[in-house]
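Hi support team,

I'm opening this ticket because the web form for multi-chain structure prediction keeps timing out on my end. I have pasted the exact lines I submitted so you can reproduce it. The total is 876 residues across three entries, so I didn't expect it to be a heavy job. Is there a limit I'm missing, or should I split the entries? Thanks in advance, R.K.
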Amino acid sequence: MNAAAWLQVLASGLLMGLVYGLVAVGLSLIFGLMDVVNFAHGEFLMLAMYAAFGLFSFAHLDPVIALPLVAAAMFGVGAFAYAGVVRHALRFKANTGMVQIFATFGLATLIQGAAQYLFSPDYRSIKGGWLEGHTLNVGGVFLPSAQVYAALVSVLAFGGLYLLMTRTDFGRALEATREDKGAVALVGIDSNRVFTLGWGLGAALVGVAGAVLATFYYIHPQVGASFALIAYVTVALGGFGSVFGALAAGVIVGIVEAGTAALLPPALKALGVYLLYLAVLFLRPQGLFGKL
Amino acid sequence: MTALVEVRNLTRRFGGLVANNDVSIDVRAGEILGLIGPNGAGKSTLFNQIAGAYPPSSGTIAFDGRDVTALSAPARCALGIARTYQVPKSFDSMSVVENVMVGAFVRHASSAAARRAAGEVLAFCGLERRAETMAGELTPPEKRRLEVARALATRPKLLLLDEVLTGLTPSEARQGVELIRRVRDAGVTVVMVEHVMEIVMPLVDRAIVLNLGQVLAEGTPPEVVSNPAVIAAYLGERRRAA
Amino acid sequence: MDQTGTMPAVSNAPAATAARSTFAQQRRRQLLQGAIVLLLITLLPLFVTNAYLRNVLVLTLLYAALAQSWNILGGYCGQVSLGHALYFGVGAYAASKLFVDHGVVVWFGMLAGGALAALLALVVGYACFRLKGHYFSIATILFAEIGLTLLHNWDYVGAATGIQWPFGADSWWTLQFARDKTPYIYVALGLAAIVWLVTWWIEDSRWGYWWRAVKDNPDAAQSLGVTVFRSKMAASALSAFFTAAGGAFYAAFVSYVDPDSVMNFRFSLLMALPVVLGGIGTLWGPVLGAALLIPLTEFSRSYLGGGGNGVDLMIYGALVMSVALIKPEGLVRLFAKRMAAR
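Hello R.K., no limit was hit. The queue was backed up. Here is the completed structure from your submission:
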């Protein structure tokens, strides 16, 4: 493989990696906020993709336009998931970790089943959207426009998230609740409210990811599961709770995956990522930017 | 005669903070030794290093004639060092007697023997009536007692008590003092980290005062309490020396 | 506070002796319960003659054994492994390979698979046990995924095609029975009974107490002489051994293995869910959970889920969520007396 080929690999990996980061950051946020791993995260992604598909098919809204709507809808889903499910899982003292894993996993299965029931297992895709079929040629490197769009949206989303976390009251409340749940009650912050909004935000972020992925990915009830594993690896690699970690790890995962696919048979492309993850974990158990 | 514990030139840093600075102390077999000092003096750090919770940055710790500086906490327990935690860390999924059995298993392989030994320790500590209660349901003073019982079940030569009398009512504290005396009378050396001077001073044989990571004074309670440097160190905190 | 004796004094206080004998009684009662349940299930095939139901019975018993194995590491030692499918698959493949290529008797295949899995568990444990909480669980998922990916691409074990067991005469050595599946019921029952007995033994053994201490408070456990790392490794190896034995049995039962049929992530969850349902870290929890969950899963899949309409998944998911949220201590607490609750 020559330099041009490697450049292509790097570029493709970077674009996909930015999307992986976006998929993962919601998960990381929720965990950082309240020590809960949302095993239904992949299903949130899947729902977002179906939402984009539905809006395209029935309301003729291009996914680019539909994006804010999808994000808003997913915000509601996330908030409801917390208020209706997770909050109840957290009131148990013993085995909280296990209960919460299985409560969210149960939710994931329920959503998957519902999707299968409502939408059938058939693969769907959005054909004829604005970004369809264009490929940018940047100095010999070919970048499908849909993926470039996805990467740009991801960068913007991270930027927006950064501003939200550092410049707004909500962001500061989020950070404060993250650091000391007990203390925030004393200053009048209702942690339940913060958690609900935090889940909403996390789901909205993965909703954005779903809306952009829908422009170039097949949509089916199990699509969430395949992304979920990448998301968990990305979050753990970057460090649970670290927003920047999710971005950095996502890019790393994307590039390693692309590189592995170029060197090994495509079926093994995930191996590179898994092995990288295990190596990092062995050396740095809390991930690249996380705290143990 | 060598002391039971010999701490030599112990230094422990946490990042830029030097919590213990070249500390050297002896713990004599059979005594009740008090480790006292104002907040931030480095008592807990010293305590934890003797217990094996983390290694020193430099210096050595010898126990019963052998160098234990690099030994893990479980290994030290096997040698005869036991400790309690300031905030009781009970095994809440198990009953009181089962909690104590965990400690007893260091010395007994069969659970029947461990259970028997645990029963004896519970009786010694006055918890026999609560043997089948789940550990999480004990009252706070009972939890403290359980901490001690669990540690005693390991048949230690040295028992390290971390603020085990702090925050008790006077009558609870009196009972606690009683228990500690009985522990020593049974042949166990006791090192106690404490804050509450008026309870600790009548109990301990010797006291070592730490301040700002270094040994400030040591001696019998009357000696330590009348030491002007000690009084000065406490001046900003509580002016009740003895 | 009227005891004045020194510690070594033998406590013959009536309370202590009485407590010890009540405990011994409880232990005997548990064994009796176990024997009764064993007897009842042994008689079950006489009444249940429908082939489909017998199939469900075999699977239920198998999962009872698997769940009980998972419970050793997850319930007693508190390490939530979501990658146990790795060991299940190793057992299935080991037994298959040994039988198909070398004619090795399935019983030995179970032992060999179990030993291999136990070794693998030590490797996985070495890498993962330094990780806390969710990091650990996710790492276990990954190890299983790596195993799955390797199997898919390894020609020695048939890659994606897997290994087909050759058709032969009915035999207890090869555990192949073409028509009457009754022997499978008894072998699965035997496996479940063995793991149940091991769990019973654990409940009052030094290892058992150490594992529970590690689960509740690793720091305190260390200060009481428990080497946390070694404890976790022991629990993991034991758990993996029996999981693999179950995998070997499954391979003989279906006479075929391929990567997705034995090392898929859903197996990892299917081994853990009955435990959560029935009661984490309890003696009867995994059995109860399996008895409820497996028939439900099978029935909903057969009668409702046909054609991939997802209804079985919905029911399954709703059930898991409900139990996790309403009765997280597990259903076994419904029958709670202190003994059952242990």
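A quick check on our side: Chain A has one domain: 3-283. Let us know if the file doesn't open in your viewer.
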